[in-house]
Write a structure and sequence with these properties.
The protein folds into two domains: 3-37, no CATH class; 55-128, no CATH class. It has helices at residues 3-10, 14-20, 28-36, 39-65, 76-82, 91-103, 106-115, 120-128. By secondary structure, it is an all-alpha fold.
């Protein structure tokens, strides 16, 4: 890649990259790698990484945006566990389910369920409760 490509894709300033190019710099190997990799390959790798990592976050974001107290926010694990709870649901669990029903788009729910291997039947069962 060229310096301008590295700057636009990774946000590395040209002056910083110039410093990294010096053999004694501890990030010299990284600079060499960035220069040798094709732009298309780098973009493809970044796209794959972003797609898989962001899918379950969308539903979490939808739920947490409606909860004002950050101490009460769900984590990915607590949101996943919501679909497996057998005991009575807390007021926050019920609120999260209401938000998922009313505000989440179908793709968010499907992506979350697929990522965490939650059966669609279980999702339907929880959301219809």
């Amino acid at each position: 890649m060229k310096t301008k490509d590295i700057s636009s894709v990774f946000g590395v300033a040209p002056a910083t990259l110039f410093d990294w190019n010096k053999e004694e710099h501890k990030k010299n190997a990284l600079a060499n790698l960035l220069k040798k990799i094709d732009l298309e390959v780098a973009l493809e790798i970044l796209q794959k990484e972003n797609t898989s990592a962001s899918k379950p976050m969308m539903l979490l974001s939808t739920v947490n945006c409606s909860i004002g107290d950050k101490k009460k926010h769900f984590t990915l694990t607590s949101l996943k566990n919501l679909f497996y709870k057998k005991e009575d649901l807390s007021i926050y669990d019920k609120y999260a389910i209401k938000i998922i029903k009313n505000e989440a788009i179908k793709e968010e729910i499907e992506d979350f369920a697929k990522y965490y291997k939650i059966s669609i039947n279980r999702v339907s069962q929880i959301l219809s409760a």
